[in-house]
Design a protein that fits this description.
- The complex is a heterodimer of chains A (286) and B (327).
- By secondary structure, chain A is mostly helical.
- Chain A contains 13 helices and two strands.
- The longest helix of chain A is centred in the last third of the chain and has 36 residues, at 249-284.
- Chain B is an alpha/beta fold and 327 residues long.
- Chain B has helices at residues 24-32, 65-72, 95-98, 117-127, 132-145, 161-172, 191-208, 219-225, 243-250, 289-299, 312-322, and strands at residues 4-19, 35-50, 54-58, 80-85, 101-105, 179-183, 211-215, 228-233, 236-242, 253-260, 271-276, 279-285, 302-308.
- In chain B, a hairpin with a 2-residue loop joins β11 (271-276) and β12 (279-285).
- Chain B is globular, with a radius of gyration of 23 Å.
- The chains are: A mainly alpha (286), B alpha/beta (327).
- Chain A binds chain B through residues 1-5, 8, 11-14, 16-17, 22, 25-26, 28-30, 33, 36-37, 40-41, 111-112, 114-115, 117-121, 279, 282-286, and chain B through 3, 5, 15-16, 51, 67, 70-71, 73-77, 84, 86-88, 91, 93, 95-96, 98-103, 105, 107-110, 112, 114-115, 119-120, 122-123, 125-131, 134-135, 175-176, 178.
Chain lengths: 286, 327
Amino acid sequence: MSDLAVAGEVDRLGEREGRVRSMVRLYATLARVSMMEQFQYRAANYFYMVGMVIEPVIYLVVWSTIARQQGGSVDGYTAGTFAAYYIVWTLVRNMNIVFTPFGWEERIREGQLSAQLVRPIHPIHYDLGSFAGWKVVVILLWIPIAAVLTLVFEPELDPTVAQIATFAVAIWGAYLIRSLLLWMLGMITFWTTRVTAIFEVYFALELLLSGRLLPIGLMPGWVQDLANYLPFESTFGFPITSLVGPITNRELVEGLLRQAAWIAIGAIGVNLMWRRGVKAYTAVNG
Amino acid sequence: MVEDVIRVDGLGKVFEVPVRDPGLAAAAKSLGKRRRREVTAVGAVSFSIAAGEVVGFLGPNGAGKTTTLKMLSGLLHPSHGDCRVLGFQPWRRERDYLQRITLVMGNRNQLQWDLPALDSFQLTRAIYRLPERPFLAQRDELIELLDLGPLVDKPVRNLSLGERMKAEIANSLLHRPKVLFLDEPTLGLDVTMQRRIRSFLADYNQRHGASVMLTTHYMADVEALCERVIVIHHGAILFDGPLRDLAERFASHKTLVVTLDEPADLSAFGQVMEQTGARTTLRIERSRTAVVTAQLLSEHDVRDLTVEDPPIDDVIELAFASGAVEQ
């Protein structure tokens, strides 16, 4: 480092703060900025959420009807448990919304990525912090929607304290896993822009193997086995089941550990792809 | 002796671009094997910039200015050559490096569109890990210098282009960078706003001793800010030296636009470039400007008169035409 750079140490204003403290402040600021933005668009957000409720209500009506026709339940799921599953689904689905891989092309084309690259933080923090702030708004807006759905569909929900605590952690775990996975998917754009087909395959697999379309417990045994080795259930089925049940305390811990493992795998994957991707990007785009 | 903060040695960038003939047959053929062609954006440029120096980096569109700035700010990995900015290799994009530089591009923004600039400033503070007191001092100084007081609490989307650019510049200087890369910072702004930003940049450079590399198409920017200019064309440096040398060597004339009460033949004063009614555009030798102006005012009823330097692009074109290759 040159003498000038050393002299510049005097101006390194952040050195007095620990790295962790700085990151906490960064995330708090990103989340706050995002909340302020989202509250400006609260009406749009509300319509967006109301629109999103249509999908689970369709599933709910279909499965409740099947349950009634089969004498009250399908593999142990009653109309009440289906109602609980799909009402919790609405919150988990919103927690699952992260920066879409389809947005990467625009991010590169419009120069947003370049603007982020000249600043001294990894761009993933912008997405994680900003979308986390949006989630806070989403949770607040979700409460009245959940209340209406509860009145209409009468869910059977009787969680233990352990279940509630696990759920509170698991929805954020789901958010992190899906953010990391979709970041990896989006980063394919560094090498080619014609990736829509890959994205579509991913989302189709996710729909079937995550518990979004129907509870994984209702799937054939081999599908359940397959889902165990893939990350999708950790982002959808597990958080819902952790609150709705039936689930043992051991399964709650196992689910959280599985989420932690997928977060670690996702973080490593993002890191590896990012290094190579930025090298490719700075070779041609900048 | 003043130390160089930027040292560039044989730096170059070659892009590979796909090429294809027009038509359906060529499109079908390209499905199998794609042809690629190498395009040299920057050949092998070398220069150095000292601490506190403000250098105009000039050239026509496609000359390699932005590519060079991108390599120096770490956005592009060079194909060959080397450079050091503040002792760092830019493309390694180390945190300590990014903490000390800024890149302002006239057509890109860092501010949050829906929020007042003050909120974006807070975000910048968190990104650069700036302690509160120095941050507030720097922020307030920038707000004052750029006359941003009445603007910073309005949502950015409600600001005019010029107001937004001022807020962008303030946001990009909150961490008090040692090196400023400015790519067309006055692009699209009206004359008043251009002048405001120019005087701010000059003031900022004086106060903080920052080194500035500036690309612009406005001669007035260069004249107000840069004692030295580097002219680049087709990825090679054509001229590197004091601005006065460039203007005197290549722009030996000025443009004089005069409007009289009655149409008149003014060819005795200089080369008539254009005449519309009583309005005449003359090309005169730079050294004769004062004499010709005085003569015109004494011999004719002059309603309006302006003296202009030729646009920077014209000066550069003259440089190319003269074939003056510095290196």
